[in-house]
Amino acid sequence: MSGPTLTVVLIDDDKTIRRLIHTALHANGMTVVEAQTGQQGLALAGAKRADLVIVDLTLPDMDGIDVIRDLRSGSTVPVIVLSARSAEQDKVAALDAGADDYLTKPFGLSELTARIRARVRRGAGGSGGGWRATHFGAVTVDPSARKVLRGSETVHLSPIEYRLLAALVRHAGHVLTHQQLVQEAWGRPRANSYHCLRIYMSHLRKKLERDPARPEHIVTEAGVGYRLVGALADPVEPLSLRAPEG
């Protein structure tokens, strides 16, 4: 792995899991700092200036959700949850608390490594000031002009469609929960918010996906929300979340 060594704080009370992850990440050029408890992990995340934190939800001294909330109270460090909890409500709670990604045990070490790299790359790009344009498939989102192109053709989006797409683009690769997307689109929940969200996401897929019935980029995370995959961003300026006029 080229560039500066990444420091990953791993918070998990299972010694076997820690050893497996430590070995895999070390082989990929990362420094791994281990913690058995939530409090120990929080202390190490600050002391070691972590580039990323991996946290289990079931810890001996506190719930992993509370660890995420504590991290988010003073840090933007990427957080990946690694947990045996597979219920939708657990995933939603972790993502709403501020986690960037969620992997369910058992997991693949190669997938974990790839997700770590993706999250750290995304964080590095954001710290450089955002993006002038983002591309996925044949689509280009140009925030400076608040335009969306499919090939060379302009795609006309409603203000709500644009706000939803802009949120997905800003957090490309990151699951956005239904609640987070409703907040982006309408500011606060209203009657039938989730039903309306599904309708607008369907509109976006019809306008932007090659095959809306088999979306390649705007993908559903069942029971949790949506994720934009396969996006490439040009680092230049922040993406405005303002909707187009009209």
UniProtKB/TrEMBL annotation:
<dbReference type="GO" id="GO:0000987">
    <property type="term" value="F:cis-regulatory region sequence-specific DNA binding"/>
</dbReference>
<feature type="DNA-binding region" description="OmpR/PhoB-type">
    <location>
        <begin position="131"/>
        <end position="230"/>
    </location>
</feature>
<dbReference type="GO" id="GO:0045893">
    <property type="term" value="P:positive regulation of DNA-templated transcription"/>
</dbReference>
<keyword id="KW-0805">Transcription regulation</keyword>
<dbReference type="InterPro" id="IPR011006">
    <property type="entry name" value="CheY-like_superfamily"/>
</dbReference>
<feature type="modified residue" description="4-aspartylphosphate">
    <location>
        <position position="56"/>
    </location>
</feature>
<dbReference type="InterPro" id="IPR036388">
    <property type="entry name" value="WH-like_DNA-bd_sf"/>
</dbReference>
<dbReference type="GO" id="GO:0000156">
    <property type="term" value="F:phosphorelay response regulator activity"/>
</dbReference>
<dbReference type="GO" id="GO:0005829">
    <property type="term" value="C:cytosol"/>
</dbReference>
<dbReference type="Pfam" id="PF00486">
    <property type="entry name" value="Trans_reg_C"/>
</dbReference>
<dbReference type="InterPro" id="IPR039420">
    <property type="entry name" value="WalR-like"/>
</dbReference>
<dbReference type="GO" id="GO:0042802">
    <property type="term" value="F:identical protein binding"/>
</dbReference>
<dbReference type="Pfam" id="PF00072">
    <property type="entry name" value="Response_reg"/>
</dbReference>
<dbReference type="InterPro" id="IPR001789">
    <property type="entry name" value="Sig_transdc_resp-reg_receiver"/>
</dbReference>
<dbReference type="GO" id="GO:0032993">
    <property type="term" value="C:protein-DNA complex"/>
</dbReference>
<protein>
    <submittedName>
        <fullName>Response regulator</fullName>
    </submittedName>
</protein>
<keyword id="KW-0902">Two-component regulatory system</keyword>
<feature type="domain" description="OmpR/PhoB-type">
    <location>
        <begin position="131"/>
        <end position="230"/>
    </location>
</feature>
<keyword id="KW-0963">Cytoplasm</keyword>
<keyword id="KW-0597">Phosphoprotein</keyword>
<feature type="domain" description="Response regulatory">
    <location>
        <begin position="7"/>
        <end position="120"/>
    </location>
</feature>
<keyword id="KW-0804">Transcription</keyword>
<keyword id="KW-0238">DNA-binding</keyword>
<dbReference type="InterPro" id="IPR001867">
    <property type="entry name" value="OmpR/PhoB-type_DNA-bd"/>
</dbReference>
